[in-house]
Amino acid sequence: MNSAIRRLAVAAIILMLALMANSTYLQAFRAGELNGRNDNRRVRDDQFSVNRGPILIGSTPIAQSKPSDDRFEFQRSYPSGPVFAPVTGYYSYLYGRSAIELTQNSQLNGSDPSMVFRRVVDVVTDRRQQGASVSLTLNAAAQQAAYKGLAGKKGAVVAIEPKTGKVLALVSRPSYDPNELAGHDLTKVSAAWKRLTEDPDKPMSNRAIKELYPPGSTFKLVTSAAALSSGKYTPETKVHSPAELPLPQTTVPLVNENGRNCGGSDNATLTVALRNSCNTAFGTIGLDLGPDALREQAEKFGFGERQLPELGAVASQFPTDPNQPQTAQSAIGQFDVRATPLQMAMVAAGIANQGDVMKPYLVQSVRTADLKTVSETKPESLHQAITPEVASQLTAMMVDVVENGTGKPGRIDGVQVAGKTGTAQTSKEKPPFAWFTSFAPANDPKVAVAVMIEDANVARDDISGGALAAPIAKSVMEAVLGQ
Amino acid sequence: MSIASTSVIQIIPRSRRGVELMLLLIAIGVSVGAYVNIGITVQDKVPASTGYYAAGIGLLAFIAHMALRYRAPYADPVILPCAVLLNGLGVAMIHRVDLGLAIAAEARGATPRAPAAPQQITWTAVGIVLFLVVILVIRDHRRLQALTYTAGLAGLVLLILPLVPGLGADINGAKIWVRLLGMSFQPGEFAKLCLVVFFAGYLVVKRDVLTLAGHRFLGLDLPRARDLGPILIAWGVSLGVLVFEKDLGSSLLFFGLFLFLLYVATERAGWLLIGFLLFAGGAWFAYGTFGHVHKRVEDWLNPFNEQGVGQVANALMGQAWGGVLGRGLGQGRPELLGFYGQSDFIISSFGEELGLTGLIAIILVYTLLVERGLRTALGCRDIFGKLLATGLAMSFALQVFVIVGGVTGLIPLTGLATPFMALGGTSLVANWAIVALLLRISDQARRPQTPAAPVSDETIAMAVQKQ
């Protein structure tokens, strides 16, 4: 009998070991997965009660946590909420997080592995966990200028420092107030959420990076870059530029917006073609170079890649296999060419930085509550899109656009501005998009900017588009240059 | 071949009551420490009820200890401290969840429920009283053998009681409660005790017949077909409990205990095989036939289903939240499990606040309790005592495995009480009776054998039977 009892004793131990093994699997190995679940109230409540670090521009917080006396110990607040909403995002108990609040979450709440030592110290000294602060590259004046410029419009502005890739301004309007979503009165929060998500103007969509638009004539910069880089063209090369360019395989010709030839010539130079934004000239170049050369050039500027991981921008697109008329349309930024305002700012920034496109970034540094640096972002080159020679040729052509062509509204007294206008349309019924992309000063660029205005209620020509978008770009550039 | 030489291991007789006292002091210290810790973290002060709690647990443990000193001086010194520790920690955690529920109710603007911890302390006192009764009244466990069939009948009646109209109550889908005089009881907890007595007494008599081999199959001696009666009846009763009372846990517990004792009595592994096949068949049948069993299995396989966060999922997230070291007492969210955080899911509350480390420590205390019980069985000099001790010890093992396994997602969840810890009077009281019986048997097993002592009638009868 005793041998049977002994076997049962062993069996009992095996049962208990199975319990311990299973608990070990659950609590040591599966814990991460379970703690990462959206429906995990423990984690959500806990993080909502953490003294979350601020999001800073310089030393000014644009998102901060202050003690609150309700069931969550801290209240997140956003001074000038709508101005910075596309960057900070929101932090809501019911609806989670977005933008910087989302991507920098582990830094802001102090749970990032890089802060593990600090957390141990906090536990030992019985101090409350405090999140790190995230400093952004934004220029507050430029951001405010862009926000003001877009008042009453639907659109976006992105400004970049060409030499580093620092994002100086990133605005989308109409915007929303993240304070409404961060509140602790959950009934109000859900009402605000409902209102914001059902608003037909989509105030929570980030037009600067998450939406794709036909770039229109601003894409002619890319086509020009491809032309100059091919070696077959110089700024003085004469290009076939009639009022109407008949296209192969179709009866629909490519036309100039004003219905005339290019600057009074059927064979204008590349410089003149860009100055007057002649569709037929760039259609001719597009047909000459072919879609692959255009796509390659576009990709060197950043098309086809998701940029700015801090906010998760979508990738801009150049059509995969266009036929000849589609290629001609693509060369002027129509057909299926789609770009974010961020991408068009990168094109200008790349040209400004001697062809070297820098990786755009928003997070300058992360510091713990006692100001120890956790991480610091260093500028990084994305691609050498064009040679410095081609870049200086293009710069001269863009200066000419602002001084003598469609971009006149972008001029700044005493500063040489290089720019390009654009209007683009998706269909005949919808109002076109107005674009302006530029950088300044042309000889030593400090800022590159792209402005896009959705549903611009203007005539379908570049002069009107420039007139609408360029003043906004101008005020942003002035803000950066301190004028 | 004498029974003494094959079935009894020699233990040098020492009373070890001093050791027990030391261990008890540690157990009480840990429990009171947990209680105070909870007060400090949740309410920022040493709780006013600490004195009541410490005096209650301490006094009760001391009374039990003194009873052993006088009436069972050779009893196992580890079993009582294990039980006191589990009981004490259980009350502390019940108190912790009380506080959490009160805070949550306040936040909702609702009136908090009456705290459950004082109630549990009262039940502990009742349990200790029963413990004393068992130790003082039952001077020799072999007397229980005379009650074999009485115990069997009592066990069956207790099992059926919840089904009596007007008496039984349906709580959380299981019909295992009886409402009497405004209080709820789970008669199944005492049925367990009665049935183990019955199984042991019955098998002492029938073991020889059941040991006879029938066919040999795959290296196992299978019993004769005509001897299958008892196991089929046990199986049928278990299935009946499952079908009519919808109590998966008790059903499994009763059948498992019978099977284990049958195996120990006959030493025929063939019984285990037959039992396992019967169990598998029954489980498969229940899974296919009964909605509540089906749902339990589904919840186990896929705790995170589209119906939102259920109990099991909630418990799993609580334990994950605790991680390896735990949130610390008073710093988790066990109240998110509601009332279950102090009853069926109390183990999950421990996992959350004490972490994997604390959970393993608790499982080890249970293991110790079980193994000391089985050790008692090994040392016991009579067959009835051996079977009884094995049954009682294994009832803890099975119960802990089934409920902890269910809460931690190892097996489908079945409602069994976590011994000594979970909120619930009947279970607590019954468990104290079980521990008292185990201690009584161990006293006999470890007592110095005086050669001159008269040999009891049963032993002679058995020796005769053996020859």
Model description:
The complex is a heterodimer of chains A (483) and B (467). By secondary structure, chain A is of the alpha+beta class. Chain A has a domain at 216-366 and 383-481: 3-Layer(aba) Sandwich (Beta-lactamase). Helices cover 39% and strands 18% of the residues of chain A. Chain A is built from 18 helices and 19 strands. In chain A, the strands form 6 sheets. In chain A, strands 3-2-1-6-14-15 form a 6-stranded mixed β-sheet. In chain A, α11 crosses α13. Chain B is mainly alpha-helical. Chain B has one domain (3-466). In chain B, 67% of the residues lie in helices and 5% in strands. Chain B has helices spanning 3-7, 17-43, 50-71, 79-108, 117-137, 148-160, 187-211, 229-245, 248-266, 269-289, 291-301, 311-322, 346-379, 383-407, 425-446, 457-466, and strands at residues 168-171, 174-180, 183-185, 213-217, 220-223. In chain B, α2 runs parallel beside α4 (79-108), α3 (50-71) packs antiparallel against α4 and α14 runs antiparallel to α15. Chain B is globular. Chain B starts with a helix and ends with a helix. Chains A and B meet through α1, α2 and α3 of A and α9, α12, α13 and α14 of B.
Provide a short characterization of the protein structure.
The complex is a heterodimer of chains A (about 475) and B (about 475). In chain A, the strands form 6 sheets. Chain A has a 6-stranded mixed beta sheet.
Number of strands of chain A: 19
Looking across the biggest beta sheet of chain A, what order are the strands in? 3-2-1-6-14-15
Alpha-carbon Rg of chain A, integer: 27 Å
Question: Into which percentage range does the β-strand content of chain B fall?
Answer: under 5%
* Largest contact between chains: A-B, 35 and 52 residues
E-strand count of chain B: 5
Which parts of chain B are unreliable, with pLDDT below 50 for 5 consecutive residues or more? 1-5
Structural class of chain B: mainly alpha
Helix content of chain A: 25-40%
If you average the pLDDT of chain B, what whole number results?
86
For the CA atoms, what is the radius of gyration of chain B? 23 Å
Q: Give the distance, in angstroms, between the N- and C-terminal Cα atoms of chain B.
A: 8 Å
Sequence of strands across the biggest β-sheet of chain B: 1-2-3
